[in-house]
Amino acid sequence: MRFELKAITSDGRVEWVAFQAADRAAAIQQLQGRGYTVLSVRAKAFVPPWRGAAERFPLVLFSQELRVLIGAGLPLVEAIDTLAQKERRSESRALLERVAAVLREGRPFSSALAEFPHAFPPLYVATVRAAERTSDLAPALARYVAYAQQIESVRKRVVNASIYPLLLMAVGGTVALFLLFYVVPRFGRIYEERGADLPFFSRVLLSWGQAVDAHGAIVLGVVACTIALGVYAWRHARLRARLGDALWRVPAIGERLKVYQLARFYRTIGMLLRGGMPLVAALDMGADLLHPVLRARLVAASRAISEGRSVSQSLEAAGLTTPVALRMLAVAEKGGNMGEMMEQVAVFHDEELSRWVDWFTRLFEPLLMAAIGLVIGVIVILMYMPIFELAGGVQ
Predict the structure, then answer these.
(1) CA distances in angstroms from 23 to 16, 52, 395, listed in the order given
(2) Mind listing the domains of the chain with CATH numbers?
(3) What sections of the chain are H helices per DSSP?
(4) What is the pTM of this model?
(5) How far apart are CA 67 and CA 77, in angstroms?
(6) Using CA atoms, how far apart are residues 338 and 330, in angstroms rounded to an integer?
(7) 302 vs 338: CA distance, rounded Å
(8) Would you say 263 and 350 are in contact if contact means Cβ atoms under 8 Å apart?
(9) 322 FRET partner, CA 20 to 30 A, in 40, 180, 222, 275?
């Protein structure tokens, strides 16, 4: 893994040094061996887009295998050593070996995991820390695996629903670009040679063709820069956040985004409560899953719960419930099963979102096909309109 270290050289200068190391401790040790005094360390993991999730630590698989080994009676350190020995990737093997080394020092499992935030997110560490209080690590791992699989299932449904529309837009855009950059310029030269009197919109279209014919490299460069800027904007976290804020302001889409985040939030809080974590601490842990607007409301709800108000009333006052969630949480307060009920609320809303995604996809796909066909049809008609007029004149 790649690290950036801020350190003081032997002559007193402060420098940033970047190099590869198995983990944070190894990075510090290597730099100190060169005579530096380390001030701070930060991980800078870069995952190439073509390698994707395959380079990330397989957290769900690790949790499943660790749960099985612990359930079979192996001590925790021996179970992690076993998983490290079977790991093929050197980065994952070094990570597990370092976790085992920290455990041999007598430190808790959650503290060992917290040293590697790039592999073990805070939610996972909090789940393990809560399990350490009740000595039920295997059930806690099982709850986290089920939680991760449910979150992944919802994400896959959304991704699968978006594949066909994206494919339509890619094919339609490719055809339109082919017409604009290849076919239209050739029609423009034909009409220019014949000196035909063209309709206004045909002249506009063929003027574009002449511009492409005369300055093709510049036009292609502008198109390539536009595509590159679009990709950069999508990969840039701040710009992506602004796009998300804009979508939140769209009434229909913003409401669904809110329900999606609340469903994920309820599932996370339910898992933490079932693991033994106090309610207010669980709410604070789940705050990062919410949009900044909802996160600010959660602070007020947590404060109200700390002051003794009921969970359902506090969340309702902060706008963090739906009508169904409000009723189910009120029932859970009377029955004392808040964790299980929050997970049931999440399941209900996941199914509701799944139905909405299916409905939206069935509506959006034909509209998108009609729009693409209209754009391509208009281009073709504008190219052939002079021919139609010429044929009418001959008659």
Answers:
(1) 17, 21, 82
(2) 2-46 (3.10.20), 58-149 (1.20.81.30), 152-395 (1.20.81.30)
(3) 24-33, 59-71, 76-86, 90-104, 109-114, 122-134, 137-178, 184-194, 200-214, 216-235, 237-249, 251-274, 279-285, 292-306, 311-317, 323-335, 338-394
(4) 0.63
(5) 13
(6) 9
(7) 15
(8) yes
(9) 275
